Amino acid sequence: MAGIKHLVMAKFKEGAAVEQLVLDMKKLALELDIVKSFEWGEDVMKNDKYSHGFTHTFILTFDSAEDVAAYIKHPRHVEYGKKFRAGTEKILAVDFPTVIDKIRTA
Amino acid sequence: MAGIKHLVMAKFKEGAAVEQLVLDMKKLALELDIVKSFEWGEDVMKNDKYSHGFTHTFILTFDSAEDVAAYIKHPRHVEYGKKFRAGTEKILAVDFPTVIDKIRTA
């Protein structure tokens, strides 16, 4: 899916309400029209050498960098971000215009 | 796109042949049928606090964990992996079955 991806990875704190945090991010993505897609998953490789401790990956796709900026500044995201940061030991985030070189056709 | 994603992030070494390494990964993804999609991009947020120094993200999608394993072990990937590691200061990699909660419809 083209556009620009906002990719976030998390290492949650011991005892964090992970399921609720994921559910709330899903709700946020579904409620805001500027979020064009929301995909996520939990690492199954579980090799700290490569994961750097990050367990969850969240990928949100937007049409433009302006839409990512609007999402970041959105009051609903700001509110969610506080809860997310409180529950995480570390966060990784990058934004990248997506080059699609191969796409599933079947 | 459902399936399982093999996500790799890289911080390249100063002077690494980044364009060639990206091109070779694209070739690999195009040549191997088990790779269902290949998307990548370069971080534009450029905030080290969040990127942890990683500049490039590569997302390969497979149908199953078995296909990811076959890819990792494939001689062409093993050969490429040597060049990739030689050109990178650090690598992050996770594999995650993808939950798609929202998808672009227009």
Automatic annotation (TrEMBL), chains A, B:
Signal peptide: none annotated. It comes from the Eukaryota. It holds the Pfam family Dabb. Residues 4-96 form the Stress-response A/B barrel domain. InterPro entries: Dabb (IPR013097), HS1/DABB1-like (IPR044662). This is Stress-response A/B barrel domain-containing protein. It comes from Zingiber officinale (Ginger).
